[in-house]
Amino acid sequence: MPRQQRAIRQACPNTKCQMYGQSAQGNIIRYGFFRLKRSKRRRYRCKTCGQTFCSTTATVYHRIHNSRNIFDEVCILSANGVSKSTIATVKRLSWNTVSRWLERAAQAAKQFSERRLRGFVLQELQLDEIRTFMDRKKRPIWIITVIEVWSRLWPSCVLGRRSCRNIRKLFRDLLGKSAFIDPILITTDGFAPYEWVIRRMFGSACIYGQVIKTRRKNRVVAIDRKLLIGSREQLEDALYKSKDSDTLNTSFVERHNLTIRQGSSYLHRRTTAHARWPHRLQEHLELLRCHYNFIRPHMALQFGTIRRTPAMQAGLTSRPLTFRQIFTSRVPVVFIIWAWNRSVLTNQRKAA
Ligand SMILES: [Zn+2]
User: Fold this and answer.
1) Taking all residues of the chain, what is their mean pLDDT, rounded to a whole number?
2) Domain boundaries, given as residue ranges, for the chain
3) CA of 264 to the centre of ligand 1 (A)
4) Which fold has domain 116-327?
5) How much is the pTM?
6) Which one of 101, 105, 120, 246 counts the least CB within 10 Å of its CB?
7) How many A from CA of 53 to the centre of ligand 1?
8) CA 46–ligand 1 middle distance (angstroms)
């Protein structure tokens, strides 16, 4: 095929242009090259608005003065629990550069998660909180996490006080992007506001139980399981359908908390590198969540020779993604799950 006829997949990054974000429409032409330190990069021009740009414009890689591979490696190291100062030493970058890159990467990861983490089905949820601190140990802060047990998907998390408002925020976020057909099985620890929020938000459209552990000298001496919403028959039915749980438990979310702690240098035990500002921890959680859901194959999701990521198991992607694919994806995907989800909830409430 002659060179000129090959379709250009670039989209115009100019937000004021009529052709913004639309690829392969014939408005983009090749427009020479510009020099980098050791190589050159292709320049493009949009015929509609007349702006020129390159393949990294409007992505996290724009003007990073380093190769894209190094940027990706910094993100992978960060999502594997390496601290910013260690990354800076190993990669021979300044601490400020690493921090600035990770801030950009977190924003892109958040946008990607918002676009792509939608339309999954909820079957079994487990919720828990991770305690950490800001500044000096005087200011405790909580990460409220939720995991969809069947797919191991980490759909949402909220950073802040351990309060009713934050639990409600988590459920609102979750229900805004997911759907459920059968009543969901929800399990939490014995923290009282969970019951209040779940009763108000789900009514009888769920089966809710608490697992309360009594500890003595740092050891669990008794486990008390309470069924608070739904009947014994409903619970048995839900456990029979569940591929993972035989009884009310919070094991999966507790194991997931360990994964989060290991993936974040801010959350290691007895660390000196704890977060000084909540927004830094929030940013890191967004990057970590994207890495966990879309990039890292999950040990529990091994099927023959294929190991799936949680997003693959939930039917959101067909293969493990890379940070490069996440940072260069610009295709907006809009799902209108919310309205449908609300109608299911209202119908189930009416039926009950
Ligand atoms: Zn344009």
Assistant:
1) 87
2) 1-58, 116-327
3) 40
4) Nucleotidyltransferase; domain 5 (3.30.420)
5) 0.86
6) 246
7) 10
8) 5
Rounded to the nearest angstrom, the distance between the alpha carbon of 70 and the centre of ligand 1 is 30
Q: Please, are residues 60 and 104 in contact by the beta-carbon 8 Å criterion?
A: yes
List, in sequence order, every beta strand (DSSP E) within the chain: 28-35, 40-46, 52-54, 120-121, 124-134, 139-148, 153-160, 178-179, 184-188, 206-216, 219-229, 302-303, 306-307
> Ligand 1 mean position to 323 CA, how many Å?
26
Cβ atoms 253, 143 nearer than 8 A: no
Output the CA 33–ligand 1 centroid distance in Å: 18
Q: Tokens 């690493």 identify what position?
A: 98
Chain segment 264-316, per-residue pLDDT in tens: 988 888 777 778 888 899 999 999 999 999 999 999 999 999 999 999 999 99
37 CA → ligand 1 middle, Å: 28
Please check whether residue 251 is in contact with residue 149, taking contact to mean a CB–CB distance below 8 angstroms: no
State the distance from the centre of ligand 1 to the C-alpha of 252, rounded, in angstroms.
Answer: 48
12 DSSP 8-state letter = B
CA–CA gap between residue 219 and residue 155 (Å, rounded): 31
Nearest alpha-carbon partner for 57 in 40, 67, 44: 44
Angstrom CA distances, 211 to 41, 77, 168, 279, 287, stand at 57, 35, 20, 31, 30
Ligand 1 mean position to 25 CA, how many Å?
A: 11
Give residue 10 CA to ligand 1 midpoint distance, Å.
Answer: 11
Distance (angstroms) between ligand 1 centre and the Cα of 15 equals 8
- Confidence (pLDDT) at 288: 96
Cross-strand bridge partners of residue 159: 143
Out of 19-23, 98-102, 216-220, 291-295, pick the least confident.
19-23
Alpha carbon distance 172, 181 (integer Å)? 17
